[in-house]
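For this section, I looked closely at a protein sequence along with its fold in token form, which I now present.
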Amino acid sequence: MSVAVTLLGRALTANNSRINRVDPISANPRPLTEVAWHQRLVEAYPKISAEWDAFVHNGGRLPRIDDVLTEDQGTVGVWRVGILVSNRKPRSPLAEVFPSTISALRQVTGLRSALWSVLEPGTELPEHTGPNAGVLRYHLGIRCGQSAAISVGDTQVPYRDGEGILFDDTAPHAAWNHGGSPRVTLFCEMDRPLPQPAAALNLGVQKLLSCDERYRNAPRRAAAWDAALNPRRRAVGDAR
């Protein structure tokens, strides 16, 4: 393990401890009734889902997450992703394919990343814990079917079209799709709301984490996979 990785791990551990002191979890998943950006995403759901349906109708394909991050995610089955936003920036080519989705995502406070997340039928993500308490995860159901769900701690929540789930993924959690069609969600990661000075210190740690090679180079790898999986769309774009 390199010195840089070791130091980054220590910074992350210290940041997690500080966050757990100043913002202990009271509910996980978190309530969304008073979260304004969630309401705006729900309002935009018809446009977002229509863009996804058009992508599928036109033969759009997404790569496996293991190929984008170049490491095994422990998934049983097939988990596909399409990067829309990374390190706070919309990313080509999918940002151009989903303009209404990108417009809606610009309303999300503290958004760091966003992607399409697709669990193929029969896929399971075994229970695991995330390493980073400085962000929250949010899933907006797009095309979920009837047998897909997530568990966070002792709470199980079914995925539903047009409904969101916000949670701290440092708690044990798992997800699955036992249905016969892909489970599609809009997956977002945003800064965890914190009081000062913890908020400023957290932003510094998140900036360091964004330098991790797996995530820094993920948009480039995703674009290369998009070119390989969707040559017809690329050819049409080049012709224009």
Observations:
- The radius of gyration is 18 Å.
- The mean pLDDT is 93.
- The longest strand covers residues 111-119.
- The chain is about 40% helix and 25% strand.
